Amino acid sequence: MGLFRIESPLPSQAFRTYALRQPLATHWRVATCAEVDCPRYLDGWKTPLDMSTQDGQNAAAWIRQSGLRFSEEVTGPSALTFRFPAGQLCPRSTPGHPKRHRAPLGRPPVMLRFDGDHRQRIGNTVLHGRAEDWRDDFGEHLDRAAEQKQRG
Prior knowledge:
By secondary structure, the chain is an alpha+beta fold. The chain has two domains: 12-26 and 108-151, no CATH class; 39-100, no CATH class. It has four helices and eight strands, in the order βαβαβαβββββα. The radius of gyration is 25 Å and the shape is elongated. 4% of the residues are buried.
């Protein structure tokens, strides 16, 4: 399910957008299960597999050779469930996993302002280097918008 937005009847040019961003490449690092209180690490997890499929058979072979601690339980005619006890690294600790655990580096966010909205950026993007400048710019914009609204 995508992001829900109420579309404005006004054009993109009528908006100014302020954003705080924390890019993955510059503001986050790979983290361990213990560092992020991973529920699988803390509580363990189970993986049900359909052994009638090649994917299920391949996954079972990988698990059996993974070095992880587990128990196997037959849960149906062609179903097998692997149960992994707490205290071991989960699949998200595997290098190359698309959703690896991440922890923030503690860097301040990138502070941006651009004319336009999510539909279209218009003109230049302003990158503020100090939080005070971004906050003041945002506050001044809100003051101008409130004055325009009062005037009608």
